[in-house]
Structures are given as C-alpha cells and as structure tokens.
Amino acid sequence: MLIFDRIRLQDLDRRNWQLWILAIVMIVVLAGGLALHMYTLATAPGLSLSRGAMLEGIVSFCVLALLFVGYLIDRQMVIAHLRRELSEERKINLERRMKGNKELIQTLFGPGQFCDRLAMELQRATNSRLPLAGLTISLEVSPGLSDIDDIYSTFGEAVKAMMGKLRAEDSIYQYTPGVFGILLPKTGPDMARGVAVRVADGLNEAMGFSKRYSFEIHITNYPDQAKTAPEMERMMRAPGDR
C-alpha cells in the first residue's frame, strides 16, 4: 500500500473528496448488483440455481463488499494520519513564527539609540539643508489578544510589514511596547505622507480580516514643525501633545 499512501498534504482535501465519490459509486454499484440479482431470482420462474451456486454468489458479493469497506477504512486512516501531521506542522510553524516575531521585537533599537540617530540625522540635515521627517506608529491590540506571546507576535508581524515598506536609509525604533518611530532622512512633507500611506497599506495587509490591532500614524517634519532634536524627539514620542 506504500504506493497509494503517497498523498501530498496539498492534495489532502481533493483525495478526501475522491474517496467520498468512490464510496458513493461503489455503494450504487453494489446496491444495483444486489437488486438485479434479487430481481432475476424473483421474475425468472424457469431459472433454477443450485444451492451451492447461490451460496457462492452470496459469498462473493459479501467478500467484495468487505474488501471495499476495508479499503475505505484504510484510506480514511491514511487521511486522518496526514491531517494530524498537517495540524502538527501548522502548530510548529506558528510557534516558530511567534518566536521569530518576538525576537524581532527584542532586537529593535530603543529610545537611547533613537536619540543618538535623531541628533546625527538632524545635524546632517542642518548642514546639508535637507528636510528630515519622522513617523510615529501607535498600535493597539484587540481586546481578544490577552496572551503576551500573541501580543508580541502581533507587534512582530506589524514591524515586518512596516520594514517592508521602508527604504534602505530609513530606520525604525521602539519607544514602548506598541509605539514605534521611523526616521526618514532627506524626506519632505509630501514624501513623508507617501511613506505613511505605504506603511498603512502594509499594516492593513498584515492585519488582514482578523482585526488583531488598530493603528495611528503621525508625521513630524523638520524644519516645518520641529527646529531642534529635543523638540522633534518630544513631538515624535508624544504626538498627541502637539
């Protein structure tokens, strides 16, 4: 049976439907054969079968039915085994993804590195007379997420979505759990709004239909809104206090 056991996990549902169709067809065939046999015996008065021939026909019919039932049971056992493997594989992949998301959150730069990078980028912007922009992204998880690992995994998925929309020179930081800052060198107000739209699209794609979180994005610009590094830092870390 090893040849017939080579069922790919991707074809599991299709094979299950095939078994159901096979079962229905065989039931119809067996029921039709039994009905035809009984009809022949009932409507052919001149037909006489020996007792041995009748027993042989009945035994053959029962053996065929048993073989068919045994085959179906064996196939269902194979499918059930593959479903367990698929469930275990999904569980392992989910655990790996949650672990990776948590590690990603833990490796993000914090407020200290943000202050250092902001001072450096602001000094560079001042000397080159180029604009500088920053995004503040505040995530709020849904009330249904209470487990700390699920929350970290959700934040990690959001961070990966944001990082996928940034340029090589952009940098992302974590102020507090769920509050992130992104520095955008050489970026004016119009370009910053475009980046904010892309980041919002990425967050919506990562969120999908699950609505695991909601988010807000605030934009801070130098030199239009902030003139110094402490002022820009305060506005980015507390955008609601503007």
Describe the structure.
This protein is an alpha+beta fold and 242 residues long. The chain has two domains: 9-104; 109-241, Alpha-Beta Plaits. It contains six helices and four strands. A hairpin with a 2-residue loop joins β2 and β3 (179-185). α1 (12-43) runs antiparallel to α2, α2 (51-107) crosses α4 and α3 (111-128) crosses α6. The longest helix is centred in the N-terminal third of the chain and has 57 residues, at 51-107. The radius of gyration is 34 Å and the shape is rod-shaped.
Radius of gyration: 34 Å
* Strand/helix succession: HHHEHEEHEH
The helix count comes to: 6
Uncertain segments: none
Structural class: alpha+beta
Distance linking N and C termini = 72 Å
* Named CATH architecture of the largest domain: 2-Layer Sandwich
The CATH superfamily of the largest domain bears the name Reverse transcriptase/Diguanylate cyclase domain
Determine the fraction of residues in helical runs and give it as a percent range.
55-70%
Which fold name fills CATH's third level, the topology of the largest domain?
Answer: Alpha-Beta Plaits
Given this structure, which CATH class of the largest domain is correct? Alpha Beta
Strand content: 5-15%
- Give the rounded overall mean pLDDT: 81
Largest sheet report = 4 strands, antiparallel
Largest sheet, spatial ordering of strands: 2-3-1-4
Globally, the shape reads: rod-shaped
